[in-house]
Each structure stands twice: as C-alpha cells, then as structure tokens.
Design goal:
Blueprint: E1 4-10, H1 17-28, E2 34-41, H2 47-51, E3 57-61, H3 70-86, E4 91-95, H4 97-109, E5 114-119, H5 130-144, E6 149-152, H6 155-163, E7 172-174, H7 190-195, E8 203-207, H8 216-226, E9 234-238, H9 244-253, E10 260-264, H10 269-275, E11 278-281, H11 290-297, E12 302-305, E13 320-323, H12 328-340, H13 342-356, H14 362-381
Helix pairs in contact: 3-4, 8-9, 8-12, 11-13
Length: about 375
C-alpha cells in the first residue's frame, strides 16, 4: 500500500499543550500508512524533540513567526505552498492560529487533497481589543471555507465556532487530547530536594507559559492571599515567557521570594506534578488545558478558572473546583480548604484520576485522528 504524504504545520514548537500534543500524535502515527512531514519556525524548545522522531521530515521555516508581519507572512505562505507541491503532500493538518491561516490557504492553493485544522482554542477571545477580535474571527471564517475538517478538543470550542459562524456543523469533529498515563503514574521524591523544598511541607503548583492567557500574575496574587492562612506552603510556577519580568516584580512586591519558586522551562513536568499537593490554573481563556489533564492523571486535585473546555474535565466538588477567571479571592478560599484537609486532597485527587478513564489516552487520540484522515481522503478521492 502506498503511504500517504502528510504535512503538519505549526507556528512554533514552544513548550505548550498544542505542541506537545502534535509531537505525541506524530510518534503514534502508523508508519505503514503515513509519511509525516513537519514545517515550523526555525526556533523552539521542542524542536530538537521533533528532529529526533524517526521517519519525520522536518522543515525549519525562515519566515514563519508568531507576530503579524505582512512581508514575512507572505513569504511563509509561498514557502508552505512550495513545500506542499515539492513533496506531493496529500493531507495538510495545521495547528496554532498563524500556521492555521497560512497553512490552510497554502494547502488550498497547492490543491492538497485534504485540509484539516485543529483548534487549540480560537484565535479570538474576550480580552482582545474589539477590532482585533473581529479581525481574527473574520480570518477564521475565511479559512474555514477551504478546510475539510475542523478538529476541536472540547465541546465548548465547537459551539463557540458555530456561534460565530465559523464553518458548518458537519465540518467539526471532536477529538480530545491524549496523554501517556504511565508517564504521570510515578513518584519522584528527589524533585523537592532539587527545588529546595522540605518534604514535609505542602506545595501548590502551576505549569504554564508566562503569557497573558495563563495570567501568571494571578498565580502570585493567589500565593499572597493564601500564605496568610497557610504561611508554610510553597508555590511552584513552572514555565517562562514574555511576562517573566512582570511576574518576578510582583513576587518581590508581595515579598514572596521564599514562598514562590519560578523554575523556568521544565521538560520533566511529570516530576513537577509528583512534587505538588494541589494543582491550580489561573487562565483567562482556554481550549482544553493539557496541564490540568496531566495533573489529574498524577492524582492531584485541581482548582481552575472556569473557562473554555475546563468544565468538561472537572466535576465541581468531585474531581476539583472551578472559579471565575480573575477571582483569586475565591480560588484562595478553595485552596485553603484543600490545604487544611489531607483526606479531602487525597480523595479529590483520586476521583480526578479515575474520572479520566480511557477518554484521554494517546492511543485513543491517535486512532480517532487516523480514522478521520482515512475517511476524509477516501471521500475526496472518490468524489463523495
């Protein structure tokens, strides 16, 4: 059987949920059916991991960048178009907002048989200026016209797309994220010592990029509010990004240098989860947060802002707690209750882990994605 040439396009392989999911998917692909290609920015923390995947042909783009730049964007469009034509790509699967627009347009111009886009949270959100919100929504509407299938990772994103007249109902396909449960099933007692934390103390953690979406300053505010009732608790914030300096200034302003630990980027997030007692997420908007899934798989109770598809993961009072975005007073109240009640922490974490079942496994995600590829390309080949 002739293998299908399949191109993935993603803006930048930074250390984020969408990027980790894409690399996991590529690793799970059936090599007898698909010949995978990847086109992405020339820099990224996960780029070395991508380059090490057997059988993957990777192209580091000179022009693909996250900020809008008309000249570079045009050159990136031409670059993607030429790559599709040169390598006889049949399926183009795009990820992330910028790559999703440019990649799908290039695929349609190059007459790729199948064009698929995964929505890792929409490019427009309620925290953008009005003109930017309308512009990005318009771009999503236009791109949907030359997209065969829109993969969403939550029911929330599907409904948001339809409410904003992006594509048609039959274009949408729900395929939830998948993680390797075994990776988050262990214990790493040495990680606390490595981070300078007493093994007997309680630890609250968050794993996130330091960008407006994740609101790392709210994490620091949460630490400030909570340490009054629980002064010995440590707070780990694993990640980095454009808001790093602002976050550090806030830590100093609240005099939390001994309570808040900023680890920087970590590729060993499973070890970080093994070090914490409660996971929190302070995001202002979300698609479906991978970090929350990983925390639940690690058996940790989760307190998260109720945004995007988070409510499809967490059952209030059972597997975790939800609060309104920005309401750190309420999150601190919930957190304090968990910190003071060891049985409640343990039971909530156990229920969180059990609630995942097999719904978020890597094998399930890969199988559903490959089925979508096969069904869609068969319909296109035979004109159905």
């Amino acid at each position: 059987m002739q293998r299908i040439n399949l191109l993935y396009v993603i803006t930048k392989l930074e250390l984020g949920g969408a990027q980790k999911q894409l690399l996991s998917l590529i690793r799970q692909l059936n090599p007898a059916k698909y010949r995978p290609f990847l086109l992405t920015a020339k820099e990224g923390l996960l780029l070395s991991q991508a380059l090490s995947i057997p059988g993957l042909t990777a192209k580091k783009s000179r022009w693909l960048t996250r900020p809008i730049n008309p000249l570079k964007d045009l050159l990136a469009l031409v670059e993607i178009y030429r790559f599709i034509k040169k390598n006889h790509i049949e399926i183009v699967h795009t990820h992330s907002s910028k790559a999703g627009i440019l990649g799908r347009l290039a695929a349609r111009l190059a007459k790729a048989k199948v064009v698929i886009h995964t929505v890792h949270g929409w490019s427009f959100n309620d925290y953008q200026p009005v003109l930017a919100w309308h512009f990005f929504r318009w771009l999503e509407r236009v791109a949907a016209r030359f997209t065969d299938k829109l993969i969403v990772v939550s029911d929330y994103d599907r409904q948001k797309g339809l409410d904003n007249r992006i594509g048609k109902d039959n274009q949408y396909c729900l395929i939830r994220y998948g993680i390797d449960y075994a990776e988050f099933n262990g214990s790493e007692p040495g990680i606390r010592k490595e981070l300078g934390i007493d093994n007997s103390g309680l630890v609250v953690g968050m794993v996130a990029c330091f960008k407006p979406q994740k609101s790392p300053q709210d994490f620091v505010k949460l630490a400030y509010l909570t340490q009054r009732a629980s002064p010995d608790t440590k707070f780990i914030l694993a990640g980095d990004g454009i808001l790093r300096k602002k976050t550090e200034r806030l830590v100093r302003r609240f005099n939390l240098q001994k309570q808040v630990i900023l680890t920087g980027w970590r590729k060993d997030v499973a070890r970080i989860f093994s070090a914490i007692d409660v996971f929190v997420l302070t995001s202002l908007w979300e698609g479906l947060p991978i970090a929350a899934l990983e925390a639940m798989a690690s058996g940790k109770p989760v307190i998260a802002t109720n945004t995007g598809g988070v409510q499809e993961l967490i059952s209030e009072g059972e597997s975790g707690f939800l609060v309104t975005p920005g309401d750190m007073d309420r999150m601190s109240e919930k957190l304090t209750v968990l910190l003071k009640d060891g049985n409640l922490r343990m039971q909530t974490g156990q229920r969180a882990k059990a609630s995942l079942g097999s719904n978020f496994s890597l094998t399930r995600m890969a199988k559903e994605t490959e089925n979508l590829y096969g069904n869609t390309i068969e319909r296109k080949r035979y004109g159905n």
